Amino acid sequence: MRPIHVIGGGLAGSEAAWQIASRGIPVVLHEMRPVRTTAAHKTDGFAELVCSNSFRSDDCGTNAIGLLHEEMRRLGSLVMHAGDAHQLPAGGALAVDRDGFSAAVTAALAAHPLIDIRREEIAALPLEDWDSVIVATGPLTSPALAASIRAATGEDALAFFDAIAPIVHRDSIDMSIAWLQSRYDKAGPGGSGADYINCPMTREQYEAFVDALLAGDKVAFHDWEAATPYFDGCLPIEVMAERGRETLRHGPMKPFGLTNPRAPQEKAYAVVQLRQDNRLGTLYNIVGFQTKLKHGEQVRIFRTIPGLQQAEFARLGGLHRNTFLNSPVLLDETLRLKAAPRLRFAGQITGCEGYVESAAVGLLAGRFAAAERLGENITLPPPTTAHGALLGHITGGHIETIDAGPHSFQPMNVNFGLFPPLTRVPTRGPEGERLRGTAKTIAKKRALTERALADLAQWTAGGHAAAAE
Ligand SMILES: Cc1cc2nc3c(=O)[nH]c(=O)nc-3n(C[C@H](O)[C@H](O)[C@H](O)COP(=O)(O)OP(=O)(O)OC[C@H]3O[C@@H](n4cnc5c(N)ncnc54)[C@H](O)[C@@H]3O)c2cc1C
Questions:
Q1: DSSP 8-state class, residue 233
Q2: Nearest CA to ligand 1 atom 1
Q3: Is the full-model pTM beyond 0.90?
Q4: 121 close to ligand 1 (CB < 6 Angstrom)
């Protein structure tokens, strides 16, 4: 049987290679380290964790990342198997001994008779005689290969920085203060004229907000990140505030063309706008608010915005060196490049974020490529599972907008905002008592994870059994 080629032996590529080989299909795994390295990797091991040693919460009952762990275990994940075997004490989180973890992944791949490891840089998209390829070269894809991908996908389709604006759960926004309206009521393609959530500010509130941005604690760029220029369209809000006290009011916080229906005579001094971020309508991003403020500072400062006092954040803002595709436009639902379907993408380059999410997308890409090689029909994971929700974010769930500025598709960790809402939200506990506050939130999360694991079981029963068992 002809091999499937996997380029990149990080979190995604290692998992993809394992899944393919576990189905009896030969794999050639191309990893450039140690011949060539990246600015963040330090070893020649597979699945190296370049920064923290945490896989985050392991609670599969009430946490979306914990649920993803559990689903991956049930799907025979090598990354989760090695992570569990090298676990360190870390409370409810799954922290791992990074060297032991990477050594275990490396040993498993090296020992597999169907995996041929080649230590070489693939400097351009491979020629046609590789008929099935998974590109999993990560956020620090080598410059030569990135240039080749850019040439194949188009100038604007591959970003070298993410410009992440915070994302808020829609149901935590106080709509007794905020209102729905598009600037000048413009409908645009696919809009209604009332597509944005608007949070008004008085002059005093705006001045205090600018002071807080200027004083807030920020994260510094790495030296190698600072060398990559970022564009004026993606400036962090605190940098805009440094350029002049009025800059934000003439940029992302401009109040023009917006009228508060509760006080039509009063003109807001500034307006913060939130735009729908996923097709489900459960998440809204704060428009133009990419930032290098530390996470705690973001929560503190953004909760001073009228209407966002109780905001729950699905993701906080950031700006990092990151190579990623405009996947909702470029990839089909099985992660193949529409323009060249023999090429699949996996891991962070597809627009997921995080070690575990990258490995999960590698797991899916590996399974899809293996099924295709075996002539089987590919069945997608249900959108109610963590895998399905993540895949939905990458390949289809995102709302494209008419606005100029940074890429509207941005990388994201798995979170419950990506899941289809429950058809029935639990309102009573086991004793029949009425649920309120935190108890209600926890019951809702439990219902989401139970639904996910039940739907995953149905999916695997339909021929998608765990690969490594
Ligand atoms: C500096 C930094 C810190 C991060 N910290 C965290 C964190 O703390 N927690 C977290 O969850 N996530 C973190 N991430 C995000 C992300 O989850 C990780 O980068 C993750 O490793 C991505 O997995 P991946 O498989 O997509 O890419 P990687 O794990 O980076 O794997 C890509 C592999 O491809 C190889 N490669 C690249 N180009 C080529 C080529 N042309 N030919 C052959 N091989 C090639 C690389 O050497 C590498 O081994 C961080 C990212 C960066 C850049």
A1: G
A2: 40
A3: no
A4: yes
